Every structure is written in structure tokens, then in C-alpha cells.
Amino acid sequence: ATAQLTEGALSDCASTLEQIEPPADANPRPSNYSQRWVHLAKCRLLIAQGCAPEALKVLQYLKQTWVGLGDRLFEVATDMSIASAAAACGETALSAAHLTRVDRDWLTTSYDTMGQFYWTCASLVAGQEPALAELLKSRAMDVWRSCGIAPHRAQLYGAVPSTAHDQKLSPFRQGLAST
């Protein structure tokens, strides 16, 4: 389901999630690793489908009930997804709070989360600081490209990189190259 989501195959992702998601009347067990990640994937799908308010409600529930189980990657993914959904809903303070938590916990030093961190920061400042937003998006693309996952990860967060954009140095890297 996650691979389908990152490839932009939203209807295939939804179909897969329907097949693997536990029935609504099932008692969700927070200790169940696969249940946590299925619910998180469903929220990311909702964000990709433009249903960020609904995703935000579910993500906040996940955060309250399923965090603290020792699954640090799930905690980071939940915080980053809340930040993305909140930014899409125009709730910049909430988005910033979750981004700050991720950064405070030194989780932005991981390439698994760094690209999403920069991309979400860009969405927060895009309305008032478009130049800064473009630099942050370019930095996210650089991170994803260095991991060999740029097109898939970028599609997941709303970027559709062109071939030409992928081949040139981003403004961030151009600045580094000139120093």
C-alpha cells in the first residue's frame, strides 16, 4: 500500500488498504505493529486525496493512543504526518509544533525523515515566503535524490519533479557550490 501511495496509484493504495485493514468493529491493539502502520498509511492516503482535515483527526487520535510504545520511527512518521495534514488545513501553529518536536528530538538527522521535514517546512512558509519555500523544497529534493528515492518520496508529499529539475543543482546546492 505504501509503495502504491508513493507511486501515486491512490486507488490501488485504497484497495490494498481495504484488504488489509482490520474490520471497523475489531478492537485496535496499539501493540500490533502492522495495525499502527496500516492506520498511518490510510491517513497519508487521505492527505494525498485532499482530505487533510479527516486525516488530521485520525492522526491526532493515533498520536494520543499509540505513541509511547517504543516505535520511534512510528512516532516520527506520526508527527511528520500531523505536520503535513495541519499545514494542508492551514493550521500553521499545530504544524510548526510537530515539526519542532521532530527537530528537537534530533530526528531530522535521519535521511528517512529529513526530506519530509524540509518539504513540510516549505508548505508552512509558502504563502508568506515563497523564495524560502522553494529553497526548502529544493533541499528536500536533494535529500531524497541522495537516497535514490526522490521521485517516489516527492510524489508522496505532493511534488512532481520534472526531469530537467532533477538534473540541475538546486538553489541550495548552488549556494554551497559557490562558497
What this model shows, in words?
- This protein has helices at 2-6, 10-20, 33-48, 52-66, 72-88, 92-104, 111-125, 130-146, 150-156, 163-167, 171-177.
- By secondary structure, it is mainly alpha-helical.
- Helix 2 (10-20) packs antiparallel against helix 3 (33-48) and helix 6 packs antiparallel against helix 7.
- Residues 158-179 have low confidence and may be disordered.
SSE run? HHHHHHHHHHH
Euclidean distance between termini CA atoms: 43 Å
Write down the overall mean pLDDT.
75
- Secondary structure category: mainly alpha
How much of the polypeptide forms β-strand, as a percent range? under 5%
Count of helical stretches: 11
Shape: globular
How would a crystallographer describe the biggest sheet? none
Helical percentage? over 70%
Whole-angstrom Rg: 16 Å
Count every beta strand, where a strand is a DSSP E run of 2 or more residues.
0
* Low-pLDDT windows of residues: 158-179
Brief synopsis:
The chain has 179 residues and is mainly alpha-helical. The protein has helices spanning 2-6, 10-20, 33-48, 52-66, 72-88, 92-104, 111-125, 130-146, 150-156, 163-167, 171-177. Mean pLDDT is 75; it is low at 158-179.
Which short descriptors sum up this protein?
179 residues; mainly alpha; 0% strand
